[in-house]
Amino acid sequence: xxxxxxxxxxxxxxxxxxxxxxxxxxxxxxxxxxxxxxxxxxxxxxxxxxxxxxxxxxxxxxxxxxxxxxxxxxxxxxxxxxxxxxxxxxxxxxxxxxxxxxxxxxxxxxxxxxxxxxxxxxxxxxxxxxxxxxxxxxxxxxxxxxxxxxxxxxxxxxxxxxxxxxxxxxxxxxxxxxxxxxxxxxxxxxxxxxxxxxxxxxxxxxxxxxxxxxxxxxxxxxxxxxxxxxxxxxxxxxxxxxxxxxxxxxxxxxxxxxxxxxxxxxxxxxxxxxxxxxxxxxxxxxxxxxxxxxxxxxxxxxxxxxxxxxxxxxxxxxxxxxxxxxxxxxxxxxxxxxxxxxxxxxxxxxxxxxxxxxxxxxxxxxxxxx
Length: 370
Fold this sequence. Notes:
- The chain is mainly β.
- It contains no helices and 27 strands.
- The strands form 6 sheets. Strands 2, 3, 4, 6, 11, 12, 13 and 17 form an 8-stranded antiparallel beta sheet that branches. The chain has a 6-stranded antiparallel beta sheet with strand order 5-14-7-8-9-10, with no helix packed on it. Strands 22, 23, 25, 26 and 27 form a 5-stranded antiparallel beta sheet that branches.
């Protein structure tokens, strides 16, 4: 009687290569060379507010309140990108170089208790926000530099840096700069770091490293000058409108740049002697509900046997693993996900003697709300 001889085992060694570096991406950049290079929304240029562009080199955007104008109505000049929410992830930075026509009343002879409106009135600022001034209807999220003139209540007035997450002021810090001088204002926004800089300083004027205190929703970018007066407290601010004096109140903007930094990806691809597994989209963290597609690309002579999809609520328990033969495989990032790709070596033609080799498990992490 003849004896069946099993086919020889073929060893397939897989070496996981996890992670790579992605270059930064410029999301918006405008040097205002006599016109607007980027797409801006000017719908909030109202009353005596106007936005023009200086054709002289190097050029700038000129946001002007050209008084006089009575109180009781809104007057505003603004450039705002309301259609583009600068988003997470990946987080992004901004840099803007600008100057103001005056110090917005903070050099007034009468001081904050008797300010002369001819030294500047209202509010002005530049940075990220969620387009809300009403904490009751939409929680406020701000990452911006601002100046609110002395006519407003002390809790609001000042030349300040504001970090606010969901109605909670995290940083409210005086800037201590002359607004009439050209300055470069920068913000670094990460999941675990929020920092602000002025000019070429290497040490931030303020920094937050607690993710629970950092805004983690999409925000828009704006630069404005208006005639707001703000009273009350932060939980219920009351907005009024000051008379605009017969002076030039403006902000000249040299350039704006919004960009993502170079960042490390959670996983770009995993490559071994059996296959490449690609992950799309390729992000460090995934917002809840994001569809992530895994595509196995076996090398010649290899084939995908199946995916092992681990239960996110039982990540270490093989009793809760589901096998899936679809390629590509799509997962919904409602929790952190662990997936193992299992390949057959030799194309699956070696019967029971085929050696099954599992790819090192991929772990994809969800961006968790704080």
